[in-house]
Design brief:
Layout: E1 3-5, H1 18-58, E2 102-111, E3 113-116, E4 122-125, E5 132-134, E6 138-143, E7 146-150, E8 156-159, E9 165-169, E10 185-187, E11 190-192, E12 195-200, E13 209-216, H2 217-228, H3 235-258, E14 265-266, H4 281-289, E15 293-297, E16 300-301, E17 306-307, H5 317-320, E18 351-357, H6 358-372, E19 382-390, E20 396-403, E21 408-412, H7 413-420, E22 441-446, E23 452-458, E24 466-467, H8 468-476, H9 481-488, E25 493-496
Parallel strand pairs: 2-14, 17-24
Antiparallel strand pairs: 1-8, 2-13, 3-6, 4-5, 4-9, 6-7, 7-8, 9-12, 10-11, 12-13, 15-16, 15-25, 18-23, 19-20, 20-21, 22-23
Helix pairs in contact: 2-3, 2-4, 3-4, 3-8, 3-9, 6-7
Bound molecules: zinc ion (ZN).
The site of zinc ion has 7 residues, from helix 8.
């Protein structure tokens, strides 16, 4: 048996004695009986709640659930769309998935303890063992030999090494991803729809475990939108973001599952920021309005990268990320950057400036080079930085850096951005005020006693694919979400991924 009740000091029983065994069985029975009567009450309450919810949904015409997304409608203030050729977006009724997929989100990385709250009891299960029913809150903590779960009434259960523990609100037990749990598990005030899995993360620390939230993808997306966009942005911007975020998540999910990974996406900017269940009405509505809608190229999902502010010139995925074996998806035509109108002039970092002295720039580049194993590790004081190569939108993709001994070094735009911000001994830590924010840069020598460069930059982020501040600008001009996304990903098709 891989799950055993912890022999707690409260019982005072000698471990392994027959007497203790009888007491344990009695305690288990008492626990089961004690758990039954509140459960019966909860079941009655749930039945009432479900009845109420069904009634409420069916009488609210504004927020239908599980209805196919309507065809795109004009949004924002009703102004005339300014894009040329606003061809209607085709929605091909040819689902890529048989049913709504789930998504696994890593919501805590390498923790040694976590407190999980819930308004109902929590079911904990491990492979090949009878599930446990625990009174909330449940505290999970690392042991050298596995995990200990301590329930809200002090019962402790030890889980054997190497086993994943899956927790669900008792009301959701046995439900399919298509069915919504009536209660949410909560960590540090954040509610998570669906299940939480505690998984040993020995690659990080021998005692640490990850917390992975698994939920239906349509339940995940509102929590992404609410974090990725400002609360007062228009619905059409949220709808476009929903389609991009859904496609991104499902594409990454496909890669991760093919590789046998334990989760699909991080809850951070490493993938998409996810803040748990949300009450943001625009986010919830945008996800419902675009239910199941994804972007494809050649009939398949592609990686719909997006960033905060393009600054006017879209980046190319092949310039920013690897394109070697296993990364061929970075060659997809819709994410290579193409000339288009842009609308992100209102962004705070549409244009920005930073400064670096020649010595500081050299030291930071050398420190980055030592860390990355790049030839620039031997650079001296910098004498100039020039654009070596641009993409088809004229955004620089490579730069040449020359030092005080006349040596030249070639860096990609992303390498240069990271290197400019790299920590170097003797220089202050980078702050939002001193940070180089993108890879679209111009270096100008300033008239100063010490050779200093003014770094003039455009935008914030990698600039590939959709630009969130352009979304805002387009939505404000009344451009609907389907025209927005097709502008950012030229050649892409809008498809229904599932019904
Ligand atoms: Zn933009």
């Amino acid at each position: 048996m891989s799950v055993r009740r912890h022999n707690s000091s409260r019982s005072g029983s000698p471990r392994g004695s027959r007497g203790h065994g009888r007491r344990l069985r009695r305690r288990q029975r008492r626990f089961a009986i004690a758990a039954l009567s509140p459960l019966t009450a909860i079941a009655v309450l749930l039945l009432a709640a479900v009845t109420l919810a069904v009634w409420s949904c069916s009488t609210d015409p504004g927020y239908p659930r599980r209805r196919p997304a309507p065809l795109p409608a004009a949004a924002g203030d009703g102004a005339t769309p300014t894009l040329a050729d606003p061809a209607p977006a085709p929605i091909v009724i040819s689902p890529l998935f048989e049913a709504e997929p789930d998504i696994r989100v890593r919501v805590r990385q390498a923790v040694e303890t976590v407190r999980i709250e819930c308004s109902t009891p929590i079911e904990a299960s491990v492979p090949e063992a009878r599930p446990l029913v625990l009174v909330a809150p449940v505290i999970a903590s690392s042991l050298p030999t596995g995990l200990r779960l301590t329930s809200g009434v002090g019962e402790a259960f030890d889980i054997g090494p190497g086993l994943d523990v899956t927790l669900v609100p008792i009301a959701a037990s046995g439900s399919s991803p298509a069915q919504r749990p009536a209660a949410h598990l909560r960590i540090d005030g954040t509610d998570f729809p669906g299940a939480l899995t505690l998984r040993r993360a020995s690659d990080t620390s021998p005692l640490a475990f990850d917390v992975i939230a698994t939920m239906a993808i349509e339940d995940y997306l509102p929590g992404v939108l609410a974090k990725e966009l400002f609360a007062n942005w228009p619905l059409a911007a949220y709808e476009a973001q929903a389609v991009c975020a859904r496609t991104y998540a499902l594409f990454v999910r496909g890669l991760d599952r093919a590789a046998g990974r334990a989760f699909d996406v991080e809850n951070s900017q490493a993938d998409q920021v996810y803040g748990g269940a949300t009450t943001n009405v625009t986010a919830l509505r945008a996800v419902r309005n675009t239910r199941g809608v994804v972007l494809t190229y050649g009939g398949a999902l592609f990686k719909t990268y997006y960033s905060s502010t393009c600054g006017g010139r879209a980046g190319s995925a092949a310039d920013v990320w690897p394109i070697s074996r296993g990364f061929e998806y970075n060659l997809a035509p819709p994410i290579q950057g193409a000339g288009r109108d842009h609308y992100c002039q209102a962004a705070r970092l549409y244009r920005w400036e930073a400064t670096r002295t020649a010595d500081e720039l050299g030291k930071r580049l050398a420190a980055w080079g030592r860390n990355a194993g790049h030839a620039v590790r031997s650079i001296g004081s910098v004498r100039g930085v020039s654009v070596e190569k641009v993409n088809q939108t004229s955004r620089p993709s490579r730069y040449t850096v020359i030092d005080d001994r006349g040596r030249t070094f070639s860096l990609s735009g992303e390498e240069l951005r990271v290197a400019c911000n790299f920590s170097a001994e003797g220089y202050p830590a980078i702050t939002p005020q001193t940070r180089v924010n993108s890879n679209d840069l111009e270096f100008i020598q300033m008239p100063a006693t010490e050779l200093t460069f003014l770094v003039r930059g455009r935008g914030f982020g990698h600039g590939v694919g959709m630009c969130q501040w352009c979304l805002k600008g387009m939505a404000d001009r009344g451009i609907p979400w389907d025209q927005q996304v097709l502008t950012f990903y030229p050649g892409a098709q809008i498809m229904r991924g599932y019904n």
